Amino acid sequence: MLRRLHIRVPSTLCLGCSLLVFIIITYVSYNVANPFSTAFSWLTSPTTHSQQYQLSQNDTILLVSAFFPLSHSKHSMGQYKAWLTNFLGPIRTPIYMYTTPELAPVIQSLRGSNPYPLTINTTFTSPLEIPPLDGMRDMYQEMWGWDRERDRHGPDLYAVWNGKPYFLDEGLKNAIREHGREYEHAFWIDGGSFRDAHTYVHWPDRERVQEVLDTVKSARAPGSEGEEMLLLPIWFPPGGNFREWSEDMGPADTEFSEGSFIGGTAASIRWWREIYYSYHNEYLSRGIFVGKDQTLINAILFLYPERFGTVWVHDPRTLTNSTTEIQMDLDGGRCGNTWYYFEWWLASQSEREAMKRSWDSSVAGGQRWWKAFWLLLGRTEVLKQIDPQYNQKGCLMTDALLMESILRRDDVFGSQWQIPTRTVPPQPI
Ligand SMILES: *[C@@H]1O[C@H](CO)[C@@H](O)[C@H](O)[C@H]1NC(C)=O
Ligand SMILES: *[C@@H]1O[C@H](CO)[C@@H](O)[C@H](O)[C@H]1NC(C)=O
Ligand SMILES: *[C@@H]1O[C@H](CO)[C@@H](O)[C@H](O)[C@H]1NC(C)=O
To answer: For this UniProt entry, which segments traverse the membrane (predicted)?
Structure first.
């Protein structure tokens, strides 16, 4: 008995070893064999860069982002690198990115062989150094004590969130200077917004952005035509308890705006920076918590709802109006991660269709496994419950919406709602 055990243990171990070696070799050769796999290219040293693409008249959109490491982050560095790889590798749109000097080579290597411009600005080692937040370190430390979610947040994170309007405006200005050309539109996007592999390349699509902006502009009341508009996604409209919200109540603590993506023309971006820091400073001077950008954005949406176009993934008008009950299958994973639905929504038609096929086939693949599982258990009655219209369902487009129209819906604030009085003018900060 003992002898046999002695012999068996090492041989099992050996089998384990050789399996592991086999898996590693397979993995390495997979990466070598597949030059398009950029998933782990950050492990290799930065390679020499391919010929830079000359921007054409069609490249009219700039993406701006930033990546600053936090001492206590919800996500690991490896996770961020995987997400940044999904962003910087495939997206063929000029990108302007703020990061620290230490991380610049990492970010550059994640761009891989993508020939589109990636400009990395390492002027700031922390977003607490940007001019609008300069000298606020102690104040932010104090503000931390006012945060109802203080266990999960911190002053560095507040600064990362509140730096976005500055980074977007500056990134656009710097890129215009550096690339020697104007951009029609620029958008802030959180660096970790591409959680999964995707089919987007020329993203966001120029014509789609124009179409969305034209739609929301035409929904505005006469008289506001001259004002520039910003585009940003929402998660859910605010509850009726915010109907009486007024400016002096400070940031609106609810999951309304998303904060991951915002942009428009250079003029609208300039305005966004001015209004954002004007309210940020005003509230802070009154001892009101402004650490979380989402809630400060919500307040500005209440005050200026005619200036924002939006996309609402859960819009019930899209979900229920359609014929023959074909529905947007959100929970079935057929729109991917719904927080990032705006990515699909702003892609070109062909890139959207490719993504839809990929979601549909992975969901169908999952269904096959379940079918096999139920068959194995002999539970054939479960198989009969499978929706006969399944193949017609899937991700759908929602309408482009004016923020004011959403807020005036009967089940939100109602048509009688008055836009709150605004007393804090936008100032250059
Ligand atoms: C720009 O876009 C138009 C229309 O999509 C296309 O016909 C043209 O070839 C493009 N030009 C360049 C330089 O890519
Ligand atoms: C980096 O960004 C800052 C702020 O926009 C700007 O002042 C600086 O000139 C930029 N650096 C480079 C090298 O462009
Ligand atoms: C959906 O229905 C509402 C009310 O029934 C209507 O106002 C709206 O225009 C419809 N939307 C579409 C896309 O048909």
So the answer is: 12-30
Its pTM stands at 0.84
> What's the 111 CA to ligand 2 centre distance in angstroms?
20
Q: Residues near ligand 1 with C-beta < 6 Å?
A: 56, 58
- Inside any domain, residue 26: no
* DSSP per-residue codes, 85-142: HHHHTT--S-EEEEE-TTTHHHHHHHHTT--S-EEEE-S-SSGGGSGGGTT-HHHHHH
Q: Considering only CA atoms, which residue is closest to atom 11 of ligand 2?
A: 121
Range of the domain at 347: 61-360+395-408
Whether 381 maps to a domain, the answer reads no
Residue 58 CA to ligand 1 centre (angstroms): 6
Please check whether residue 420 lies inside any domain of the structure: no
Ligand 3 touching residue 286 (CB < 6 A): no
Distance separating alpha carbons of residues 312 and 323, to the nearest angstrom: 20
Residue 14 token pair? 């050996």
Q: Is residue 34 part of a domain?
A: no
Of 55, 58, 351, the one to substitute when testing ligand 1's pocket (max ligand atoms within 8 A of C-beta) is: 58
Q: Is residue 169 lining ligand 2, measured as CB closer than 6 Å?
A: no
Q: How far apart are CA 218 and CA 13, in angstroms?
A: 70
Residue 273 has, within 13 A of its CA and on its CB side, a CA count of 25
- pLDDT tens string, the chain, 429 residues long: the values are 344 444 344 444 444 445 444 444 433 333 333 333 344 344 444 444 556 788 888 899 999 999 998 877 788 889 999 999 999 999 999 999 999 999 999 999 999 999 999 999 999 999 999 999 999 999 999 999 999 999 899 999 999 999 999 999 999 999 999 999 999 999 999 999 999 999 999 999 999 999 999 999 999 988 877 788 999 999 999 999 999 999 999 999 999 999 999 999 999 999 999 999 999 999 999 999 999 999 999 999 999 999 999 999 988 877 655 544 456 777 778 899 999 999 999 999 999 999 999 998 888 887 788 888 888 888 877 777 666 666 667 888 999 999 999 999 999 999 999 999 999 999 998
Ranges of beta strands (E only) in 204-260 are 230-231
DSSP H or E run through 212: helix 206-218
